[in-house]
Each structure stands twice: as C-alpha cells, then as structure tokens.
Amino acid sequence: MSSKEKEPEGELQTAKGMRDILGEEWLAYQGFLEKAAELAIYYGFRPLETPILERASLFERGTGADTDIVSKEMYLTRTRGGDTLALRPEFTPSVMRAYLENGLQAEPQPVMLYSSGPLFRHDRPQRGRYRQFYQFNLDALGTAKAVTDALIIKLLLTTLGEAGLKNLRLEINSLGDKECRPIFRRELANYYRKHARELCEDCRERLKENPLRLLDCKNPKCQELKEAAPESVGYLCAACKSHFREVLEHLEMLEIPYEINHQLVRGLDYYTRTVFEIFDPTVTNEAGLPLALAGGGRYDYLARALGYKKEVPAVGGAIGLERMMLSPHYRRQPPRIIKKPKIFFIQLSFDAKLKAISVIEILRQARIPMAQSIAKDSLGTQLGLAEKLAVPHTIILGQKEALENTVIVRDMQNRSQEVVPLAKLADYLKVNIKHLTK
Ligand code: HAM
What we know:
BirA Bifunctional Protein, domain 2; Rossmann fold
C-alpha cells in the first residue's frame, strides 16, 4: 500500500475495501458454496483448501511478476524469520503447488479440484471490486484435452444458473502455445510500436514488458487502436487451431452460446490456448462497464514456471461471489445447517434458567430445530417472539416445572397443552409432533 493512502480512522472501522459479512448474508455465501460444491462433486471434483498465506514468490513466478495483481495489488508480509509471504490474490498458483507438493501427478489424471475462500487484492475499491472477495474455483490438472476446457465452462455456467442467473454471455479466445504465441506477440508489438505515440502512458510501459496486456487496456485512446490490432486466432499453429476448434465443438454440442472475443487476453501471465470470461449484461462497474462474473482458461506451462521439471497441462476458472450477487437475477440458496424452528422454548424464573441450557441440549441431541430467547424473562415477550416465528409448538419451563423436572408442551394452534417429564421430552415430541426433524 502506498504510504500516502490513509486507512479509515479509528479501531471501530474495518480497513478500506474490507467488510464484515453478517447473519443472513453469510448464510447466503454458505448456501451458494454448499450448492457449488455439490455440483462440483457430481462432476467428479474433489475439495482442496489451500493456505491463505503463501510464499510471495509463488505468485511472482506463477501469476507473473509484471501483472497488476502481483506488481501493484499483492498484500505482503515479512515473517519474523525473514520470509516474504503474500495474502493469496488468486487460487491458481496455489492449486498447482498443492497438486505438485502432494504428489497428485501420480494419481489417475486429470485431477479435478474445487476450492473456495477469500482472496486479497489491493486495488481501488468500487462496485464489484473489493480488496477482500470470495471465489469459487474449479481446476482440472493433468490433461490437455479440449473436453476439460468445455467441462469447466459448462460447470461454471451451471453453477451460476443454479444461483438464478440468466442471459449469461460467454466470451472465449485462444492465445496459442509456446510455438505460435511468440509470433503473435511479435506481430502485436510491431503493430503497437508503429502507434506508440497514440498510446496511454501505462500501455507504453506494457509494450516493453508484455505487449499482450495492451489488449486489456480500458483507456478510450487505446481502445480505438485495439480494433485494428492483430488477432491471436490468426496466428494459431495447427495443434492450437484444432484444440480451439474442439473446445468450440464441445460448447456447440452442449448448446452453450459463445462469442469469440479477439481482444480477450486476461491479465494473468500463465494462460495458454483457451481463455474465457462470463458476463451478466446487468452487472456493471461504476463507469457502466461490464464486469466479468467468472473467468479462467488453460495454463499448460504454469508447473514449469514454478520450477517443476515437466509440463502439467491444466485448465480452470473461478466465479466471483460478490459480482454474482450483484445480479438482479441472483437467488439466495439456503445452507443445509439452517433449519426452520419447529418449537419455541420459553423459560420463566431463575430456576428455569438454571435448567434452560440442558433443555436446549436435549432438543439438539434429538435434532429438533428450535428457537429461544434465553436472556428474556417475561412470558409475554417470549410468547410474542414465538408467534412472530409462527412455530407450531412451544415448550414452557416455569418455576414449578423446573423443580419437578418437567416442561409444558403447548400446541400454538388449538392452545392445548400437556406436562411432560424432561427425561421423556425428546421421545414425546418425536411421537406426538409430526415432521419435527424435517
Ligand atoms: P480472475 O479473472 O482474476 O481470475 O478472477 C475471477 C473472478 O473473480 C472475476 O471474474 C471476478 O468475478 C472475481 N474477482 C476478481 N477480482 C475481484 C475483486 N477485486 N473484487 C471482487 N471480485 C473479483 C482468476 O482469479 C483465476 N485464478 C481464475 C482461474 C482459475 N484460472 C484458472 N483457474
């Protein structure tokens, strides 16, 4: 972070670009992640959880030292032992590291992994762009087959679709491999060198480091030049051409509409061949520009870039949860841990409070979803809460019941009630009240 930039004042505020995710909102995150994991498992993916802190060099070598993510946006920390660690800005280098470190190349290929969690990029916060954000990430490692590119795209679209998203637009391109990409890069650099004076300052720098990234520039001056720039697909070698054709054939078979975007290069260094992004036309940034909800591609040389002796062809992609949730079509998915309460537990008097936690535990062990307000004393307040929740039954524990080790079970509809010994409560509820544990 630049030393000039001020964080919000006071310990009672989160750092800039960071936020708390509370109650209902976190349950929505959890509901989505559960559903996404379930879909991924149907498709044959396995879970992978990587550390939030990794060696900074993993991203310098993997994501690329010259990318914005690494050169400008990475949160770095020095350990007491003198190592430089980074808060992960993305998953892909960690996924490849984990695959190699855990010997997964010895297992049947491809190894398909899903990961999710918070990522950190120190960018200027705005709508759809946060310093801490969440991704659901899919990767298939150990195969170059075009069918895996299509599988990743299909599953990302299905996952977004299950969350209610509609009218998604898939943009796709191929960047070629080590045979043909250098030729395209050279042609692109030649083209831009001829127009160097018309370029923005950043792009003049990019021209020296990585001319492919000129195609990423959003500056209107550079936008015009992009229109006439050479296109990567025009330079693909025979193998890359046939790989790209196969990916598109798979998409057609799956009836997934796509647009070839010749200017799609993505801001990360490791991509080869397929790159793609998924848009919802209604999700835009503050300037009204479309925001990609998901993006990914093939990264056949990442393992080598990280120092591994062999190439490990791989492909993957990730959904940004916050951007997905910006869509007006997005529907919250309830997580499995949430159970609608069937019973409200009312306790009255100090003696009842002494037993209250034991009653909660009896219901928990019997897997009966319940609600309570254990700090409240008055019957009226507690009954009011029970009515608000529209629970079919209440359990009342008063002074008398506490001393006799009983409770009153009350039917909220017909107002009938019965005294039940605490020791028999779970059995009584299961026998007498239908659909209790559903
Ligand atoms: P990415 O395009 O940098 O790709 O991020 C993927 C998605 O994460 C974006 O489409 C967006 O929804 C979300 N995202 C990215 N940055 C932010 C941010 N600052 N605030 C909110 N959301 C954000 C990758 O990260 C690659 N590692 C994807 C991949 C997996 N490629 C191969 N495997």
